[in-house]
Amino acid sequence: MKKIELAVFDMAGTTVNEDNVVYKTLQRAIDEAGYETTLDFVLAHGAGKEKHQAIKDIIAETQPAEEIKTTSDEIFERFKSYLSEAYDNLHVVPCEGVVELLTFLKEKGIKVALNTGYNAAVATSLLEKMGWKKGIQYDTLVTASDVTNGRPAPDMILKAMSDAGVTDAGKVLKAGDSTIDIEEGKNASCGLTVGVTTGAHTRDQLQSAQPDYVVDSLLELKEILV
């Protein structure tokens, strides 16, 4: 294995514990439009994706009880409004072990990128709630609104590499809590892909994407990267 120079981490469910509020809100907006879903269904079909695309994919997999006249654009606007309300009182904390891992990576000289299917406004709000700052907890942030193609396309990872000055994808680690995170890492030709069971998908679901490792905590990366 080549020496890792850049670790790219998903946010919600991977580095950030926000109690699935985004996907609960996504489910609420979709169900109010006339669909019937469950949180597990929303996570299975929408986790890790740019959120408007997630809505499109979820409703494409759902049979509504009657004719639906609400468009995905209208559902997305409703979702953004509900999410803004939810964030007003949301308590956000790092996932267990993440702060210790980030300290370890800094000591090892490994740069850290955060990437997410959220837009820049939502991602920045989460980081502000945790008190995380660029140059301290992470080196660069890449969001769905920063690139043309969302996951599983490799665009966000490629931008993170450019931001960090890393040219060899074989020296990049991508970790996330959904299969689409792993697919994104593979499509970017990352040297290591890691699934973590702290968020959207189960160990079996993560294993289906064939990552190099599946861990129960990102802190386990300390043993992998020694």
UniProtKB/TrEMBL annotation:
<dbReference type="InterPro" id="IPR036412">
    <property type="entry name" value="HAD-like_sf"/>
</dbReference>
<dbReference type="InterPro" id="IPR041492">
    <property type="entry name" value="HAD_2"/>
</dbReference>
<dbReference type="InterPro" id="IPR023198">
    <property type="entry name" value="PGP-like_dom2"/>
</dbReference>
<dbReference type="GO" id="GO:0006281">
    <property type="term" value="P:DNA repair"/>
</dbReference>
<dbReference type="InterPro" id="IPR022468">
    <property type="entry name" value="PhnX-like"/>
</dbReference>
<dbReference type="InterPro" id="IPR050155">
    <property type="entry name" value="HAD-like_hydrolase_sf"/>
</dbReference>
<dbReference type="GO" id="GO:0008967">
    <property type="term" value="F:phosphoglycolate phosphatase activity"/>
</dbReference>
<dbReference type="InterPro" id="IPR023214">
    <property type="entry name" value="HAD_sf"/>
</dbReference>
<dbReference type="GO" id="GO:0005829">
    <property type="term" value="C:cytosol"/>
</dbReference>
<protein>
    <submittedName>
        <fullName>Phosphatase</fullName>
    </submittedName>
</protein>
<dbReference type="InterPro" id="IPR006439">
    <property type="entry name" value="HAD-SF_hydro_IA"/>
</dbReference>
<dbReference type="Pfam" id="PF13419">
    <property type="entry name" value="HAD_2"/>
</dbReference>
